[in-house]
Amino acid sequence: MNRVFSGIKPSGEVQLGNYLGALQNWVSMQDESDAVYCVVDLHALTVPHDADELRSSTLSLAQMLMAVGLDPERCILFVQSHVQEHAECAWLMECTAAFGELRRMTQFKDKSTGNEFVSAGLFTYPALQAADILLYDTNQVPVGEDQRQHIELTRDIAIRFNSRFGDTFTVPEAVIPPSGARVMDLQHPDRKMSKSEESPQGTILILDPPEVIEKKIKRAVTDSNDEVFFDVEKKPGVSNLLSILGAATGKTPKEACDGITRYGDLKNATAEAVIELLRPVQEKYYTLADDPAETSRLIAKGAEKAREVASTTLSRARQNIGLLNL
Ligand code: ATP
Ligand code: LTN
Question: Among all ligands shown, which has an atom nearest to the Cα of 10?
């Protein structure tokens, strides 16, 4: 059966880009594939953070994943640090990846530039990500466009390891949606919407109330002529709204354009589509948030199932790379 794996960091509140670029695909893939999804808390340690906040974000992110439609009966849902094989396998990946390869990663450049403290973990982060993916014999990795480079690197690492030490890892491929793969900040349409950047007006949170969503979309940056067409270069703000509208209604951005001629209509249609898309998710989240003990029970079971797969792959990798087994 086709194995799917993906991860999301507990680095802030889940935003619309996460949902349209990744989580929608996660939900649809859990039925057609053998899916494994992970709250990647070890990845969240790569940047300065507050310990208590990380703990509570990890649990609430697991609840959010269930609220968007992941069902622990139909997929494996777990927290990365609960399966220690990830950290061990990451070392094997660090020793397989080249320094120059890691230095070329644009996410490292973006997240390190201008910061006073840059951890070594931020630099080796893609090796941990490769471990996450390769431990599960993954065929497909549903992610947003920004992760394409990391999946390419994961492929290169798997191919290199296999050719040096014999067939060990499955070589995965990225699955990126036709709309919503790169949702941009509503106030700065030249940069991607993200949960950890400070841009409250430019970021739509999954838990934003309807009136807040409406206000943010109505204030989204467009340009001065009132023409609606999809062209990311010439019309970044308008094209972003068209991508959001398309992703929220199952259309391509160009199809979403149909019948819309003015900015006001585009903003109204987009706000309505996003509000309707998020309404059931918000309702379910608040129900689940009332029962943290049940969430903990479910993710503990998820970790057990994940460990079974990960430990088998890691034993194979340890054997093939030449570590002594007693
Ligand atoms: P951070 O700001 O901490 O880097 P993030 O919001 O970028 O967080 P991640 O946890 O890094 O979110 O990513 C989870 C998934 O969401 C990934 O598959 C990523 O590609 C996708 N994603 C994140 N932001 C966007 C976006 N703006 N548009 C589309 N997909 C996105
Ligand atoms: N690096 C990713 C998060 C991530 C991930 C993964 C995604 C960590 N491990 C494995 C897919 C598969 C990010 O920053 N969005």
Answer: 1
